[in-house]
Amino acid sequence: MVDETPLQSSPEFARDSECLTTTAVARKGEPVANALQTIEPKAEATAPPQTRSQRAIWFAIEAVAILFWLYALMKVFVFDLDNYLVARFLPSYQHLLAFKFPVLLGVVAVALLLVRKKWLIGPCIYTALYPFIVVLWKIPKFLFKQQSWVLAFAFVNSVVSFFQSFKINFVTASTLLIAFLLAARFSTPLLLWVSVALMLGALIVLYVRRFIVVFQPSIVFQAYLSIFPGLRKIMPDSCGLGADLRHVPRDTLDSKQLEKWTTQLQLAVLYNRACLFIAKKLQDYQSSKLNFLAYVFSLIALTIITILVFGGVNLALFKIEPAMFSRVDDPTVFAFIYYSFNNLFRTSANVISPTLPLSQFVYMLEVFFEFLLGALLVSLFFSVSNDRYVKELNKVVGGLEQDVAAHKETRKSGRVVEG
To answer: Which residues contact 285 (CB under 8 A, 6 or more apart)?
Structure first.
């Protein structure tokens, strides 16, 4: 919590605040003084309403972008969707899939000839950048419409946490993606062994980091503690009175010095109020339990990554030596992801079973990671329980302190208070 005592308790602050009010009123023509005046709310400018055809076009572009990225993710991580659909419904045309890239280029060329450039390039860029548009525009816009500072701070804290761990997140994500693609697309034993080592190594790094995060101070709040002192170091004369004016009596200042003194004092007060505002909103965010919700989502993401990693590892082992597994009728990527999912959640729907010691060791290793996920879930449970215990204890302590204060007042007044 930000401490405002050093600023407000000093006699200089009381003197300067009174002088600030007088000076701001007397100098209404100056821009900095006007910044603190009450601004009447203005009517918001509204965009012209869209026609039905424009809404339909934007809906179609949005649907195409969503379907494109769902297809790309399914194509890379789950199974070959277009091959499956053609083999299921149009098996006689399956050989044409080898020409899908030239066909796609032809479609783009025809579209460039028939459609205006602005109607084609814009939707293509929108589709290609759709994940970034969702994160950087759609989510902030949704939070702004909700008018909830708690949700806004939850989003800001997520962004801060991502960039605080950007290097390790980027390296591990890139390693997992490259290793998974090696296991899914290649059959060379050397590349498959490399993919197994990379996937298991990256997964171990993620788990070790998650356990470190459980016991170390929050990197998000550490970032807040470093941002505001950093701002004061960058512009010390803007966030407080300069050394040349701090100990000079106001009556001896000339017009330029008085203008500089007023500006610096206004900025100091604004900086102080901003710190107090952010501290209050951070307390509201902490009380809202959204931080625990973020922890739950991180556990879900870690579970999905674990399933994908062991699916890729088992697929690579199958390609190295098919005898490591029995009853593999359809050795696709999705079949081994399904096998990994069943192993992690202990279901009995598996049609694949490990037969050799190495594949059996990988099975036991996935069970071990299952217990690590359970340990992280237990740590979340204890965090929530401890937070509730602390709140209840503080409530009891506050009630006892009020009772003691009331008893002291009774003794001082010499009266008996009923109840």
So the answer is: 149, 150, 153, 154, 157, 291
Spatial distance between the Cα atoms of 290 and 151, rounded to a whole number of angstroms: 8
Q: Which residues contact 80 (CB under 8 A, 6 or more apart)?
A: 332
Neighbours of 312 (CB within 10 A): 28
Q: Determine how many CB atoms are found less than 10 A away from the CB of residue 93.
A: 10
Q: Which two tokens stand for residue 51?
A: 């026609």
Tens digit of pLDDT per residue, the chain (419 long)? 334 444 444 444 444 444 444 444 444 444 443 443 443 444 444 445 567 777 888 888 888 888 888 888 877 766 677 777 777 777 777 777 777 777 777 877 777 777 776 677 788 888 888 888 888 888 888 877 877 777 777 777 777 777 777 888 889 989 998 999 899 888 899 999 999 999 999 999 999 988 887 777 666 666 666 766 666 666 555 555 555 666 666 666 677 777 777 777 777 788 788 878 877 877 777 777 677 777 788 888 899 999 999 999 999 999 999 889 887 676 788 889 888 998 888 877 667 889 899 999 999 999 999 999 988 888 877 776 777 767 777 777 777 777 777 767 776 665 544 44
Nearest partner of 149 among 159, 157, 138, judged by Cα: 157
Give the integer Cα–Cα distance in Å for 128 and 307: 28
**CA-CA distance, 370 to 248, in Å (whole number)?**
68
CA end-to-end distance (rounded Å), the chain: 37
Q: What is the DSSP letter of 250?
A: G
Return d(Cα 380, Cα 397) in angstroms, integer: 26
Beta-bridged to residue 325, according to DSSP, are: 354
Find tokens 């171990």 and name the residue. Answer: 204
Rounded to 5 degrees, φ, ψ at 76 are -80, -45
Structure tokens at 316: 């690579």
Tokens of 256: 């330029």
Amino acid occupying residue 13:
F
Alpha-carbon distances, residue 89 vs 12, 83, 86, 183, 309 (angstroms) = 82, 10, 5, 28, 32
Provide the residue type at 393 as one letter.
L
User: Would the pTM count as exceeding 0.90?
Assistant: no
**Residue 195 phi, psi dihedral angles, 5° rounding:** -65, -40
- The whole-angstrom separation of Cα 123 and Cα 198 is 37
